[in-house]
Amino acid sequence: MRIRAITLRILQQFIHDKRTMALMFIAPLLVLSLMSLVFNGDAYEPKIGVASGAAVFSTALEAQKAEITSYDNDESSNAALQAGDIDAYITMKGTTPGIMLEGSNPAANRAVMMALQEAMQSLQPSAAGSVQNQPQISYLYGAEDMKTIDRFGPIMIGVFVFFFVFLIAGVSFLRERTTGTLERLLSTPLKRWEIVLGYVCGFGIFTVFQALLISWFSIQVLGIMMAGSFGYVLLMTLLLSMSALTLGTLLSAFAANELQMIQFIPLVIVPQIFLSGLFPLDTLPLWLQRVGLATPIYYGAQALMDIMIRGKGWNDIALDVFMLIGFSLLFMLLNVLALRKHRKM
User: Fold this and answer.
1) Is the overall model pTM greater than 0.85, yes or no?
2) Which of 10, 204, 228, 230 is in the most buried spot, having the most CB atoms within 10 Å?
C-alpha cells in the first residue's frame, strides 16, 4: 500500500506538471524530427569554379550534379574562394589539371574530389587525351592532413561555451528567485534594468574566465588548428557567453524549479547545435536554414571557423559580432520586461 501511495503521488505530480509532460512526449518528437531533416537532407552538391582553359570539365562535372561557375581570371576565382562562394577552382596547365580547394570543410573537399574523379572517368576519349595527368591539389585554407577535430573544434568551442553558461546562469538566477533574493531587490527603489545589468555584470565576470580557459585549452592543449588571432577567438567566446547568459536568465523567469530550467535544453540548445554548421545548411530545407540564421550559436560558430580555420580578421567577422551583441541586448530588454511579473506593486 505504501509503495502504491508513492507511485500514485509521483503520477499525480507528473500529470499536473504540464511542462514536464510536454518534455517527455513532445520534445523527443521535435528533436527526432529535426534530426531526420538534418541527416536525411539532400546530398551536398559541390560548387566548383572552372577556368576558361579547363572548360572540358564543365559538362562532365555538371553531370555529377556539381554547380559550375566559369571564371575568366584567377583574381575573380580567388575572391570567390575566399568568400566561400565556391568550394574549389579548376585550372589546366598543359595536360595537367590543377585544383584549388577552399579546404575548410572536409565534407565539401570529399564531394569535390569525388565529382572530379567521376568527371575525369566519364570524359570521352577525344577529350580525355587532353587530360593525361592526375590533378595537382592545393588548399586555400586547411591542409590535406586536416583532422576532424580541426573542422568541428571551433563549432564545439562555441557550443560548450554557450551550453554551460546558459545552464549555470539560468539555474543561478532561478535560485535568486526561489530563495526570495530577487523579490527583496525588486522591493527596493532599484530599477528593473539596473537589476538585470547588475546580474549580467556579476555573472559575466565568471564567463570571462570560462571563455578564456576553454579557448586556451582547446588551442594550446588539444592542438586544434589556429590560423587567426587568439584575441578574436576570445572576443567571440565572450560574446557567445554573454548571449547565453542573457538568454539563460530570461528563460529562468518562466521556470518554477531547476528541473523546469533543464527542460529548456532540448528545446533551445539542441536545435541550435544541429543548425550551428556541424552539417552543411545548404542541404536543409530553406525554412530550416532561416531558423538557423536566427540563433546565436550559428553566428558564433561561423565566426570561430573563419578565425581558427580560415585565418580571417575583423572585416569577415564584424557581422557575427554585431549579431551576437544584438542578441544579448534583445535578451536583456526582454529580461527587464519579464521582471514585471515578479515585482510586487
Assistant:
1) no
2) 228
